[in-house]
């Protein structure tokens, strides 16, 4: 038997566990993974949620954005992650244009769940009709608001969103709409800490932040960023855990511990 598996918590995480964690005030730890080895390592370190993010387009495939990633790419990487994982909750991204219509979203989501092994799909933006349609079909949905990397050509740059009152009010209104549409989780990317706090307090679903401050129900980072392996410049909201540990395993364990005891993110990682 693999010695690393001996201390695994037996229970496989589900959405009810994550919901319960929010209500108990226990922080949810999450990282991206794109293959079986990283998935196993994260899982064994006690991560709650693994996101097979379309960030793989940048960190694995070497593209300048996430736009070239296809549903087939997402399916392949979700299958790899599912093979390495035993207990963490797996979310797979719907990549650019794969949720352009509600039917298309549901068809692609079903593939990521049925063939890939994901337990939930994530889509960028307040695509209310697509969320409602998927939820009607029994598909668990995670929404993603704030900075939307798939909209990079509209935005022009990767920058903090919701800094002025009008933008912040729109993001808050969208957050409430996605919850009403049936989304069971929300990722908030690169928004001021105060806005993420308000959203986290007003929503009953778990809100996971990346560059969104300490008050979210949980935190997520791109695994390559927190291992100091980024090809470009390190995002301000990330932290290189390899600097304070000697191994990848210890780095992931340190991240999980800091999310749980709320020492990550610090002010320097927040906006
Ligand atoms: O694709 C991804 O890795 C993501 C995270 C940045 C949340 O969406």
Description:
By secondary structure, the chain is an alpha/beta fold. The protein has a single domain (12-269), classed as Phosphoenolpyruvate-binding domains (TIM Barrel), CATH 3.20.20.60. The protein is 39% helix and 14% strand. It has eleven helices and eight strands. The protein has helices spanning 15-24, 36-44, 56-59, 71-84, 102-114, 128-136, 152-155, 165-180, 193-202, 223-226, 248-260, and strands at 28-32, 49-52, 89-93, 120-124, 141-146, 185-189, 207-210, 218-221. An eight-stranded parallel β-barrel has the order 1-2-3-4-5-6-7-8, surrounded by eight helices. Helix 2 (36-44) crosses helix 4, helix 5 crosses helix 6 and helix 8 runs parallel beside helix 9. It is globular, with a radius of gyration of 17 Å. The N and C termini lie far apart (45 Å). The model has no long low-confidence stretch (mean pLDDT 95). It binds 3-methyl-2-oxobutanoic acid. 3-methyl-2-oxobutanoic acid (KIV) binds at residues 32, 51, 53-55, 93, 187, 189, 210, 220, 222.
